[in-house]
Amino acid sequence: MSSTAAGREDSYALYDCARKETFRISMEATVLRQITLDPDRPEGYQCGAPESAT
C-alpha cells in the first residue's frame, strides 16, 4: 500500500470515495487499526457523501 513515487516512499495512499480524491499519509506517523479493502455494501450502493449518523 506504500507509494513508490519519488519523495513519497513510506506513505499510505488512500482513496476518499466521498471526495473522489486520493490522499497520502505518512506510515511513520500513522497507526492503522483496521482497513477494509472490499467492504460489504447494500445493493445499489453508489459512492457519495457519507451518510449522517443521526
Strand content: 15-25%
Query: Can you list the strand order of the major beta sheet?
Result: 1-2
- The coarse overall form would be elongated
Helix content: under 10%
Class inferred from helices and paired strands:
mainly beta
Tally of strands: 2
SSE string, helices as H and strands as E: EE
- Rg calc: 14 Å
Major beta sheet, specifics?
2 strands, antiparallel
Classify the oligomer. single chain
Structural descriptors:
single chain, 54 residues, mainly beta, two-stranded antiparallel sheet, 0% helix, elongated, disordered N terminus
Write up this protein:
Helices cover 0% and strands 22% of the residues. It has no helices and 2 strands. With 54 residues, the chain is mainly beta.
Please render the helix and strand layout as text:
Layout: E1 11-16, E2 21-26
Give the structure's gist in a few sentences.
With 54 residues, the chain is mainly β.
